[in-house]
Design brief:
Layout (H helix, E strand, L loop, with lengths): L27 E4 L5 E4 L50 E3 L12 E10 L7 H13 L10 E5 L8 E6 L1 H7 L10 E3 L2 E5 H6 L8 H16 L56
Parallel strand pairs: 4-5, 4-6, 6-8
Antiparallel strand pairs: 1-2, 3-4, 7-8
InterPro entries: DUF3152 (IPR022603)
Organism: Micromonospora mangrovi
Protein name: DUF3152 domain-containing protein
């Protein structure tokens, strides 16, 4: 990583963006890895307290077909659920609260929400799936630095995990051209439902493991981690490597601590292209 750029946004060369940003009450300035910067519209951003709506003009489109999509990224698996290209911009928040995961370290509380229009995903079930991943000892709570707790809509939270449609992802991640990746922007961990439904080719159809990786990678950005490179050909990829876009000789890995010890690579990111479609 160069300087202090926004961690978790994906750079488009067509590739990916990244660096530390803070959501301000009126305006958020997103620093791009390429060196430029522009302001993300505040009405399209979601604070840790409550997801804000996308403008009313963004009406839901018909659900994506589960048949092959012409022009879809080569090798991308067929979706396991249907979803609209564009949702309402409003979110359903999971109500259940969970136990604190992790024994020591700073406590961060998080909410989980699903964009309205993604009707195939139950928000409470999605909340449980997120909580299981973030509580796993192979994850961020296993090293003693962090404790994480899922909370409901009426409890203060440090960040929110959002499952969004591809177009809303573009707005919340401040890049309307990218409908493929997910991101972290400030206190928003934005999970693109296209990747939640389809995964990526390099995980060889193991959608469950890819979802674990996706959550751990984007939450890792919220915890202050930047992108990393493959440390050894044939070895597991660090969770902070952009495995969604390429493995570069490493093998897929979903966890920060796959064998009970931290796995990291050199800081940096590859100039992998981002597919044009979701």
């Amino acid at each position: 990583m160069r300087g202090r750029t926004t961690i978790g946004l994906h750079r488009r060369s067509r590739a990916s963006r990244a660096g530390p940003t803070t959501l301000l009450a009126g305006l958020v300035v997103v620093g791009l890895a390429a060196g430029g910067a522009y302001a993300a519209r505040p009405d399209l951003l979601v604070t840790a307290g409550a997801p804000a709506p996308v403008p009313a003009s963004a009406r839901p489109l018909p659900a994506a077909s589960t048949t092959p999509v012409p022009g879809r990224a080569a090798g991308t698996p067929e979706p396991t659920l249907s979803y609209p290209a564009r949702g309402t911009g409003r979110f359903r928040t999971a109500t259940a609260e969970g136990a604190v995961a992790g024994r020591t370290g700073q406590l961060l509380r998080y909410r989980v929400a699903v964009e309205q229009g993604i009707d195939d995903v139950d928000v409470e079930r999605f909340g449980r799936e997120v909580a299981v991943v973030l509580a796993d000892p192979r994850g961020w709570t296993g090293g003693g630095q962090w404790r994480l707790q899922r909370v409901g809509p009426d409890t203060p939270a440090d960040f929110t995990v959002l499952l969004t449609t591809p177009e809303t992802r573009g707005r919340l991640c401040a890049d309307l051209t990218d409908r493929y990746t997910s991101c972290r922007n400030g206190d928003q961990v934005v999970i693109n439902v296209a990747r939640w439904a389809r995964g990526v080719p390099q995980f060889d159809g193991d959608l469950g493991r890819y979802r674990q990786y996706l959550l751990n990678h984007e939450v890792g950005h919220r915890l202050g981690h930047g992108h990393e490179l493959c440390p050894r050909v044939g070895g597991p990829a660090p969770v902070m490597q952009q495995q969604t876009l390429g493995l570069h000789g490493c093998t897929p890995n979903a966890w920060p601590r796959p064998d009970g010890v931290p796995l990291a690579g050199p800081p940096g990111q590859y100039d992998d292209p981002v597919p044009d479609t979701d």
